[in-house]
């Protein structure tokens, strides 16, 4: 028979094991973490995004903001650009001591390749439609940047592009440049 003190001991033992596992996991994560980027990288990242935010603000004004009841095509990009600008200023002012940034490594190139693939999509979209560039983008992201198998890449890429086609072209009748 168990006494009233045994459940308390059992719970304490379980808590101790959980605490040990948490400490071990935290140590493993700290060992795998790349080195901290430092304050100069924090400011540089803030300056880059500040420039993007300011450029987005200026460009969105060219589209026209409209009003809140009749928004123009530049209103949403303007709102996003203002938010990016404000967050960038906060990063520059207060983020220099943050410890959650990582130094650029060889794997950081993957992010740049992802951005370049989006630029390629934007460049090819008006020329050959959205189907082929979108399919290529999915393949690049899944197979080469994400390391998925060819089977998974093929299935997810085709299903995703078909779903976008069904949603944007068939259901919403958005006039996207397209082949089909």
Mean pLDDT: 85
Strand portion, in percent?
Answer: under 5%
Helical content band:
over 70%
**Count of alpha and pi helical runs:** 6
SSE arrangement, N to C: HHHHHH
Q: For the report, how would you describe the main beta sheet?
A: none
Q: Would you summarize the structure shown here?
A:
The protein has 6 helices and no strands. The chain is extended, with a radius of gyration of 25 Å.
List the helices and strands and how they pair.
Layout: H1 5-32, H2 39-63, H3 75-94, H4 109-128, H5 131-145, H6 150-171
Helix pairs in contact: 2-3, 4-5, 5-6
Domain DUF1468: 44-177
Keywords: Membrane, Transmembrane, Transmembrane helix
Transmembrane segments: 43-63, 75-95, 107-130, 150-174
Can you give a write-up of this model?
By secondary structure, the chain is mainly alpha-helical. Helices cover 72% and strands 0% of the residues. It is extended and about 60 Å long. The mean pLDDT is 85.
């Amino acid at each position: 028979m168990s006494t009233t003190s045994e459940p308390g001991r059992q719970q304490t033992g379980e808590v101790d094991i959980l605490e040990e596992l948490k400490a071990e996991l935290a140590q493993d994560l700290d060992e795998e973490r790349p080195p901290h980027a430092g304050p100069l990288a924090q400011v540089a990242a803030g300056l880059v995004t500040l420039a993007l935010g300011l450029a987005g603000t200026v460009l969105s004004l060219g589209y026209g903001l409209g009003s809140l009841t009749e928004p123009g095509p530049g209103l949403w990009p303007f709102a996003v650009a203002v938010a990016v600008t404000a967050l960038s200023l906060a990063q520059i002012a207060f983020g220099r001591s943050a410890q959650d940034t990582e130094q650029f490594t060889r794997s950081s190139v993957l992010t740049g390749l992802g951005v370049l693939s989006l630029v390629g999509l934007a460049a090819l979209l008006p020329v050959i439609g959205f189907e082929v560039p979108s399919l290529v983008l999915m393949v690049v992201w899944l197979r080469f940047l994400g390391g998925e198998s060819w089977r998974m890449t093929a299935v997810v890429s085709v299903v995703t592009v078909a779903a976008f086609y069904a949603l944007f072209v068939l259901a919403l009748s958005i006039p996207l440049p397209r082949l089909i």
